[in-house]
Design a protein that fits this description.
The protein is an all-alpha fold. Helix content is about 80%, strand content about 0%. The protein has a two-stranded antiparallel sheet with strand order 1-2.
């Protein structure tokens, strides 16, 4: 669980066991935690998307291009049998793949943690608690789908593990096409 989810769990647990006399303080503190959740997570993701959208698009495109071209040259070097250059190409391919995996996996983890918040709140709504607290949590739960905590590259595609699969498929497709053009006998 991330820090914000843990704070929400602690607040709900504390508020559900507190006496009725501090109901106003409970609802005010819970509202503060919910606002903090949106400020910390959703707004940070939106600001990061706005600030880094061009860089993310360039990095994904550049990595796609580098992996494709380097893999093609690796195939060409396998035909000539140069061991040093073949090893260098493999290192560059692995380096670019690791870079893309780290980038996309970290954004997937943030998105998954944001999605777990709704499940955590649902678990506590089902427990017996103060009706006003339950209403606030239900209102917060209704707002969750409207706040998108997802990273994207200029809104063109999401940055998640599915994008990694799509990039791998595109690299494979272009690599097969390049290799087919190279291995075809020239008809002149």
């Amino acid at each position: 669980m991330d820090i914000v989810s843990l704070q929400m769990v602690a607040a709900v647990t504390f508020f559900s066991s507190a006496p009725e006399a501090i109901c106003f303080l409970k609802s005010k503190k819970l509202r503060t935690l919910m606002n903090t959740y949106w400020m910390l997570l959703c707004d940070a993701v939106h600001q990061a998307n706005g600030f880094y959208c061009d860089q993310l698009m360039a990095v994904i495109f550049s990595s796609f291009l580098h992996i494709t071209v380097t893999s093609y040259y690796f195939f060409m070097l396998l035909k000539t049998g140069t061991l040093f250059f073949t090893t260098t190409e493999v290192a560059w391919i692995l380096l670019n793949i690791c870079y893309v995996v780290l980038l996309l996996n970290s954004s997937t983890v943030v998105t998954n943690k944001a999605d777990e918040t709704g499940q955590t709140i649902c678990k506590f709504i089902n427990k017996s608690m103060d009706p006003e607290l339950r209403n606030q949590l239900e209102g917060f739960l209704l707002q969750l789908p409207h706040h998108n905590a997802r990273f994207s590259a200029r809104g063109c595609f999401p940055l998640n593990n599915e994008t990694l699969t799509a990039v791998a498929g595109a690299v494979t497709t272009y690599l097969v096409i390049l290799i087919q053009f190279q291995t075809e006998p020239s008809s002149t």
